[in-house]
Specification:
Helices cover 86% and strands 0% of the residues. It has 113 residues and is mostly helical.
Length: 113
């Protein structure tokens, strides 16, 4: 096949120069777009990192607060249980009377429905 029969191959190299020129132009456009978009992407990524760090900090503080509150509730439960046990030991008849009265009241309230 000769260069005259194939329109993509020119004997003087004009097609090759055109392809090289188009390739160079495409690379320049890509480089320019990259240079233009790069600061924006960096800024967006920095903002995303900052948001993740803020969320992580808030989550850590919340978890620490919940852990502290959980410990406080367990301590309060222990104190209340100890106080109730002491009350029952010191006044067993009063404790039984209160339990019977509470049961009767609860039964009466539930029957009213």
């Amino acid at each position: 096949m000769t260069s005259m029969s194939n329109p993509l191959i020119a004997p003087d190299g004009t097609v090759a120069r055109t392809v090289d020129h188009a390739t160079s132009t495409a690379h320049r456009v890509i480089d320019k777009a990259s240079e233009t978009l790069h600061p924006g992407v960096d800024h967006l990524a920095a903002g995303a990192h900052q948001a993740v760090n803020s969320l992580s900090d808030a989550t850590t503080r919340t978890a620490e607060t919940l852990e502290l509150r959980g410990k406080q509730l367990l301590e309060a439960q222990s104190r209340l249980t100890a106080k109730c046990c002491t009350q029952v030991r010191e006044r067993p008849l009063t404790s039984i009377g209160i339990a019977v009265a509470a049961g009767w009241l609860l039964g009466w309230l539930l029957r009213q429905r």
